[in-house]
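Lab notes, practical 5.
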Amino acid sequence: MSPHRLLAAALVAGIVPAAALAAPDHTEANFTGPLVTPAVNTLPANSVNVEPYLIHTNSRGWYDGDGNRHAEKPTIRQWQVAVPIIYGLTDNISVQVTLNAARTSVGGSHSDGLRMGDSAVRVQTRLKAPEADGTGLVLAASLAQRLPTGKYHHLDTNALNGVGDGARRTTLALGAQELHWLNNGHALRWRGQLAWSPAPGRVRLRGPSVYNTPAGFYGYARPGETWSASLAAEYVLDSRWVLVGEGIWNRASGARVDGTAGGHGKYAYYPAHAFSLAPAVEYHFSPRVGLIAGVQFSVGGRNATDYVAPQVALNMVF
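Output from the prediction step:
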């Protein structure tokens, strides 16, 4: 896929705030979770977590195959709304549905309003629970299925209406987290995830598409496998304020497009990888309601977009 355009990616992350945790002589600790790394601990049975995100992504340029950054004018801007909804099926199993919509603009052009993007369904099972006081290693495994509900081809009237990639992508992930009480009485929680997605099979393409195919094109795209890893830490200042630091790595194998448009055409997209950081701050109205605001931005990569994405999310548990 071209590194010069943004897609509204379906989030497969669920961020679940812990109940208020405290130990003798320790500060009360509340968490919403970081911006990107998914939840590891599951919800109690029959609980619901809803966390709407508002994200504004500004694509400032791209990294070429040698890792050199190039500026892009005009920049591509995208407003995205993502809503992960998690239900605690049992104390150890949770089910999540994530819905997305986006509006993209570049120069004086824009998509036809807010367009529905790809969706996702995710099931997570907890392999190891924390101790009663919230400490101890927590492990979980998850299976996510991306659904191509966003428009990705037949873009004859407006190419900016493409907000999906057409792929039915399955993702397997392993997550871990652990809470530590520091000598100063404050809490530090780290969380990490490693995820892998096999090649999803071919995607049918007709006409202009997010794969940069021209008018009259008839053929298929074959996206490759993807890998991602992230690591985050949350440091509790007091019962309301938490500081967050996060690092993210993504890698995508090259995709191939085959078809005809007046003649036989073949297109190849090279393997890409990207590194980004996502600092944030959390504010907790209560142990069940928290607000997180931060910014994810690229710091390097190859055949990847250079971007900055301020975002805010309201985390609610019912």
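Observations recorded by the TA: The CA atoms of residues 26 and 184 lie 8 Å apart. The first strand starts at residue 48 and ends at 50.
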